[in-house]
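Support request from a user on the community tier.

User writes: "When I paste my structure tokens into the form, the page sometimes reloads and wipes my input. The last time it worked, I copied everything first. Here is what I submitted, just in case something in the input itself triggers the reload:"
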């Protein structure tokens, strides 16, 4: 018994440094949410940016510790804070939590790629610690003891203690802490007291950004090499401590992080290492705890986002463009869409080569998966970050069934059914959670799926991806990409029509009423939970079918290449940027995901291919051409995808809807002026009445 207690104490001590890591990340998230109202998932990207700069300065340029910390932590942290506050979040002060979350997801995708464009894609191995040594194991203290700490762990312990004490004093004893909390509740009320709310908000962003930069430098030595996804995975693990702290308590975040680190160390010490359950549970423990806390804590289920008490003075939003355009314009729109589809298929059949045709076919298959985001988030209002997991479930089910001579199309339908069953089990508790907590729950499920279920052979086939052949339809084997493109296009058309019918039907209208006023909707007998669950399950089924369709096209069910959880974040950003309620957004997102990187690669390769060998090009011009590296195409594409999410706060309806509204508004204005005889040779005048938008009933015809 004494030996067991001694071992437990030893494991607990070993878990304290990792607990401090979780606590440091959780404190950063809590501080950001407490002082800015933003649950900043881009915190991990900021941390990675500072860690990368610190690595380059310390290891590649051999800077001393003090100037490297000054530039990588202080200067870069302040610069990122100013850019985020003045360039982005200052304009989102009254935006919805969904807008802020989508913006942070876009930054999470874009910032690491921007960093790689500057520091290069070469491996950054053995990151240096925040200590005046080259390696973490250069300092071991106390030597000869059972509880030895290295330089990185010592720096983490000291920094965590200083940060907790300092932030506790600031928020408990100073007026600055009170003002930081007040600016989240209502910046307009704070300004009525003579306080510059914008300056207070900038100060809170500086503090949180400095903490992110410091956390990045401290966390880098935990990994063998720098990788932005490692930072995000570790940050996601720390979310359990944030939930323990209710996103408000810095002390709660500290205790939650320490407890999580100690529990993980105890499991690693006492559980057998050769068990499949152990190998899956140990890395996924923080995600399991996060998921359990989100479902079990009543304070989470009853929590609502902060709302500005003066938000009622803001004007109402305009109705969707589909509700204000005349009937003749609807007919023209559908006709133009049909013509564009026919022309696009003709171009694919007779103009594009096999390579580009394959990209279009892959993008169309992905569009089926993205339709699930339109259903789940656009129609149902649930922020789901696990659509990649549902797609993987459909792909693996299809792959397992075809190994037993089940037809491929039957396997795809079975995959959709299995994904729907998993979606029903997950959706019933998740849809009861408020917005940001639902997103965290689905993210925790995606990471648990990756850590626990993915390694199992009966799920994914193990280390070797399972092969999935092309389907045979009416005796025709779809071995050619053009035939498969026609099948994928048909699937997008049928499922897209189903999404439109759901959105315009009873379920969609009930959910619109819930978004308008959940209290009023409940008063007239609308069961929001039932309708949200129906849409969530339908979205899971569509994702599962799309996963099987994509796996059959590429020939295998490969999770890392096609369904990784990070890709789900990129997909969500693409769809929401284009318009979460639009079927066109799914097609746009799927094609963009495959075509934009390749188009950028061709664009970046052009200067070198056509100008590099030209005799008139001088030496310095040839050096400038080296900047046009086709290997950057993927990174630049992800930067564009991520930064595109910044448009969401200004256009929450999506870019497609915003542009369509502008065009329709212009056409209707011109039509009115012509009918009133105000058309001149110089063009339409500016004296016409503005087009009614928010003041008109969404179902009242216009024009």
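"...and here is what came back when it finally went through:"
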């Amino acid at each position: 018994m004494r030996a067991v207690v001694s071992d437990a104490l030893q494991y607990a001590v070993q878990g304290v440094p990792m607990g401090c890591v979780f606590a440091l990340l959780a404190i950063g998230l809590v501080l950001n949410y407490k002082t800015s109202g933003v649950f900043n998932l881009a915190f991990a990207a900021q941390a990675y940016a500072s860690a990368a700069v610190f690595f380059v300065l310390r290891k590649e340029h051999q800077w001393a510790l003090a100037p490297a910390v000054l530039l990588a932590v202080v200067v870069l942290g302040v610069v990122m804070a100013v850019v985020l506050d003045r360039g982005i979040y200052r304009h989102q002060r009254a935006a919805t939590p969904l807008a802020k979350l989508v913006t942070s997801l876009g930054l999470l995708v874009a910032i690491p790629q921007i960093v790689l464009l500057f520091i290069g894609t070469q491996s950054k191995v053995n990151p240096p610690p925040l200590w005046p040594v080259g390696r973490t194991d250069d300092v071991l203290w106390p030597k000869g003891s059972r509880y030895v700490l290295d330089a990185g762990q010592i720096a983490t312990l000291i920094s965590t203690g200083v940060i907790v004490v300092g932030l506790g004093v600031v928020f408990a004893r100073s007026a600055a802490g009170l003002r930081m909390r007040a600016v989240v509740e209502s910046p307009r009320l704070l300004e009525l007291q003579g306080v510059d709310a914008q300056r207070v908000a900038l100060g809170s962003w500086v503090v949180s950004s400095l903490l992110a930069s410091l956390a990045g430098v401290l966390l880098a030595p935990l990994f063998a090499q720098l990788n932005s996804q490692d930072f995000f995975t570790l940050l996601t693990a720390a979310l359990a401590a944030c939930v323990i702290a209710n996103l408000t308590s810095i002390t709660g975040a500290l205790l939650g992080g320490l407890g999580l680190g100690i529990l993980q160390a105890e499991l690693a010490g006492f559980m057998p290492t050769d068990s499949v359950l152990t190998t899956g549970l140990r890395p996924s423990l923080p995600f399991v705890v996060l998921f359990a806390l989100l479902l079990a804590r009543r304070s989470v289920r009853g929590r609502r986002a902060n709302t500005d008490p003066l938000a009622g003075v803001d004007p109402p939003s305009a109705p969707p463009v589909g509700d204000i355009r005349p009937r003749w314009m609807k007919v023209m729109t559908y006709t133009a869409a049909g013509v564009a589809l026919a022309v696009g298929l003709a171009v694919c059949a007779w103009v594009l080569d096999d390579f580009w045709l394959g990209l279009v076919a892959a993008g169309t298959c992905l569009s089926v998966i993205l339709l699930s985001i339109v259903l789940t988030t656009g129609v149902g209002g649930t922020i789901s970050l696990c659509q990649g997991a549902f797609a993987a479930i459909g792909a693996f089910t299809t792959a397992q069934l075809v190994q037993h001579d089940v037809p491929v199309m039957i396997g795809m339908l079975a995959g959709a059914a299995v994904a729907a069953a998993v979606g029903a089990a997950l959706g019933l508790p998740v849809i009861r959670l408020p917005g940001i907590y639902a997103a965290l729950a689905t993210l925790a499920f995606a990471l648990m799926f990756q850590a626990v279920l993915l390694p199992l052979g009966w799920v994914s086939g193990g280390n070797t991806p399972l092969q999935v052949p092309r389907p045979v339809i009416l005796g025709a084997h779809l071995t050619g990409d053009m035939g498969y493109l026609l099948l994928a296009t048909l699937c997008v058309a049928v499922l897209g029509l189903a999404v439109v019918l759901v959105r315009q039907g009873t379920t969609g209208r009930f959910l619109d009423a819930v978004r308008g006023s959940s209290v009023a909707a409940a008063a007239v007998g609308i069961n929001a939970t039932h309708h949200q669950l129906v849409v969530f399950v339908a979205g899971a089924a569509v994702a599962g079918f799309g996963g099987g369709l994509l796996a059959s096209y590429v020939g295998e069910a490969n999770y890392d290449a096609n369904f990784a959880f990070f890709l789900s974040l990129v997909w969500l950003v693409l769809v929401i940027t284009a318009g979460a309620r639009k079927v066109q957004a799914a097609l746009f997102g799927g094609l963009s995901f495959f075509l934009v990187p390749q188009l950028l690669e061709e664009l970046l390769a052009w200067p070198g291919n056509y100008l590099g060998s030209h005799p008139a090009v001088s030496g310095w011009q040839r050096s400038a051409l080296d900047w046009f590296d086709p290997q950057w195409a993927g990174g630049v594409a992800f930067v564009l995808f991520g930064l595109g999410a910044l448009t969401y706060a200004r256009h929450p309806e999506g870019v497609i809807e915003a542009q369509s509204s502008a065009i329709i508004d212009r056409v209707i204005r011109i039509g009115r002026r012509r009918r009133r005889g105000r058309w001149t040779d110089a063009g339409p005048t500016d004296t016409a009445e503005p087009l009614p938008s928010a003041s008109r009933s969404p179902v009242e015809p216009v024009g």
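Agent notes: The reload is a front-end session timeout and is unrelated to the input. Strands lie at 140-141, 149-150, 466-467, 472-473, 476-477, 556-557, 679-680, 683-684. The CA atoms of residues 369 and 543 lie 4 Å apart. Escalated to web team.
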